[in-house]
Specification:
mainly alpha, 5 helices
Amino acid sequence: MLRVLRLWRLAGQDMRLLWFALRHRSRPIWLWPVAIVLLLYALDPFNFTIPVLGVLDDLVLLPLILHLVATLLPAEIRAGFGRRAALSPGA
């Protein structure tokens, strides 16, 4: 259970990075379609049909995919997010 909580803490940081990257002027062209597919995957009706599998993929698969997308972002965007996070208090 502790690993899942760590994974979600990392996912929160990755979501902030993804939001920053979506608004960045030099974002990759593939980012918007991937973000939309990720959002649709999170809201998939399969989660309502088979609740146990839906919870499992929301707790494990979704944060892992989000982290993969965050690691595929260009270094320039990740560095800009790191500088922004270092400058803003409480982030």
